Amino acid sequence: MIIGVPKEIRPGEERVALTPANIAALLKKHDVQILVETGAGVAAGFTDGQYEAAGAKLADRDQIFSSAQVILQVQTPGSNTTNGQDDLDKMKSGQFLIGMTDPLANPGFAQQLAQSNVTGIALELVPRITRAQAMDVLSSMAMIAGYKCVLLAATTANRMFPMNMTAAGTLNASRVFVMGAGVAGLQACATAKRLGAVVEAYDVRPAAREQILSVGAKPVELDLDTGEAEGSGGYAKAQGEDFLKRQRELMTDVIKDMDVVITTAAVPGAKSPILVTADMVKAMKQGSVIVDLAAERGGNCELTQSGKTVVEHGVTIIGPENVPSSVPHHASQMFGKNMENLLNLLLNDQGELALDFEDQIVADTVISHNGDVPHTRLRELLGLP
Amino acid sequence: MIIGVPKEIRPGEERVALTPANIAALLKKHDVQILVETGAGVAAGFTDGQYEAAGAKLADRDQIFSSAQVILQVQTPGSNTTNGQDDLDKMKSGQFLIGMTDPLANPGFAQQLAQSNVTGIALELVPRITRAQAMDVLSSMAMIAGYKCVLLAATTANRMFPMNMTAAGTLNASRVFVMGAGVAGLQACATAKRLGAVVEAYDVRPAAREQILSVGAKPVELDLDTGEAEGSGGYAKAQGEDFLKRQRELMTDVIKDMDVVITTAAVPGAKSPILVTADMVKAMKQGSVIVDLAAERGGNCELTQSGKTVVEHGVTIIGPENVPSSVPHHASQMFGKNMENLLNLLLNDQGELALDFEDQIVADTVISHNGDVPHTRLRELLGLP
Predict the structure, then answer these.
(1) Taking CA atoms, what residue in A is nearest to B49?
(2) With helix as H, strand as E and coil as C, how does chain B read?
(3) Considering A303, A321, A339, which residue would you say is the last residue of a domain?
(4) Fewest CB within a 10 Å sphere: which of A333, B128, B241, B294?
(5) pLDDT tens per residue across span A20-44
(6) ipTM score here?
(7) Annotation marks residue A136 as catalytic
């Protein structure tokens, strides 16, 4: 069987779906061929020579789409709504497409694939079970994003993060506040702590308290009823408007003393909740910084503009898009390892992709197959019986 | 006496010469008035209200230049050759001007001040003696620059700095190499170390070895004769071309394995030595990063363009200008404290500036006085008897 890795085409996307190391590992285990588009890894720091040395064959884009039975992408046309359609037109009946498809926000993509009789596997739907951890791209990319957003904040801040006692007096450490203590939030806490900041964090899930302490940050507690804040799969559950209003009131007092606020509260497939209102921004100090990791889903801050850095009431608000792609080498390494692990599960002894729908990982991630959409949740979203 | 703090006008300059805290401290000790230009501290995160609360009077620029006997600037027209001339035209006979003047690169400024009978005090010339440490702006600003350049590198790098062991495999720590272990270089080592990188450093001065170890980095040793590398005042001495050539050969081998190279080898008043040649850049890994803190003096890397970020042979080379100004709050806090300490030395009981040329700090820093240039080194540079 032939597996194809085209170059990513979404504007700004610098990752690649497999690294040379992943390819060497796959070729050792499975009787497959792997085609990589010329230059596919360059933006992530992997040269064509390294791919060839690992056993891949270099090919052009059309060759890959016409000859590979499985196409691997970081951003499939499902998540790349900018210029992904070109690739969708190249797909053929019977092919497999594995990558990120933004399934809950763009369920219609599953239908498009089904119409072309392409089997689509959405990496975002990998279940949060122990066996699937090594394939969980949301976690691995959130880790990168949590690290990088702290650097964006520190680079923009008008002060240093660590405390310094010098001949020219004492400089206070910056106060960093992280909202949302999922993978990204905890990594943000750890990174800000490394840099010497005084770090506090908040999450509606009571279980987050221990996790926040474990990365050296101080949990902020608000007087709120948080009994049912954790939804299935360990993600934060969407909350009612009354709850969010009270949360905002108490939060204003916390936020006004901070130098940096990092928000990471994204609910999969849904618009992000507003945690930082315009009034809270107004109450903040001149020169403080907000990094809104939920910018792409509408943002956790009312004044965030996705993909832009704006200054409002003297506060710089950064709304970065596709943060993992800005650390493309390590992000590709993790993404590629996730992909390699998934392929190890799916490839049978003959080197063919064999889907066992009794396996939760398969059942949860396959969004189109045999000209239909087998996925229960997507069928609901699409209004299919 | 009236002391005036105008807003900085050099493009991109966000610092301010005194903070509200410095002003409160000075007014408590001395019988002086302090005028601050409206909005002077805003870019550094200090509001007009904070200045007024500290006892300063707000004024417009012309008022300050016409009524203050002492003008305090971060960048005087000596270092601000872009649009500083405007201010020079506003200065009056008998006034004092204290700030950075770029004295060794722009000695002619001392003559300009002398012609206007303005007494100029250049903060860059504060001697490196224990008693003057608290006034040493080169050290305090180098500390800021050393911190910030690591953030620039980390934000640009295609990989994370710390090692990470995750469900998606192990990510190696980045390797950071710091060239020049003065204040900036040592702070760069410490900051990269904080972020989790593997840090190595090099300096021609044998004494630097202990200092490099003290901030958690590994000293790189080259097989070179370095007996006379330390000049007066603890700064690196300019080296001969043979020495530098051999240094470059040995260095190529070191550099090719690095993910990040930070160069900080500036010789006061002279063009910076080339430590990283185009050939060395060519030998580096795809996607690695160089930050050249000596960019403004020509750069330590042959391919650096001052004020720009360029990509050459797959390596991103950042040549930042005026780095301390990009952390304006803390930089102003340190600069202001240096300035406050100097004023405490210079102000007498009547709240007047009294220059005691027997004091080394005065003798070393006054570049113009009584219509003449009293400074020995500047007289030499200017060819004056």
Answers:
(1) A286
(2) CEEEECCCCCCCCCCCCCCHHHHHHHHHHCCCEEEEECCCCHHHCCCHHHHHHCCCEEECHHHHHHHCCEEEEEECCCCCCCCCHHHHHHCCCCCEEEEECCCCCCCHHHHHHHHCCCEEEEHHHCCCCHHHHHHCHHHHHHHHHHHHHHHHHHHHCCCCCCCEEECCEEECCCEEEEECCCHHHHHHHHHHHHCCCEEEEECCCCCHHHHHHHCCCEECCCCCCCCCCECHHHCECCCCHHHHHHHHHHHHHHHCCCCEEEECCCCCCCCCCCCECHHHHHHCCCCCEEEECCHHHCCCECCCCCCCEEEECCEEEECCCCHHHHCHHHHHHHHHHHHHHHHHHHECCCCCECCCCCCHHHHHHEEEECCECCCHHHHHHHCCC
(3) A321
(4) B241
(5) 999 999 999 999 999 999 999 999 9
(6) 0.93
(7) yes
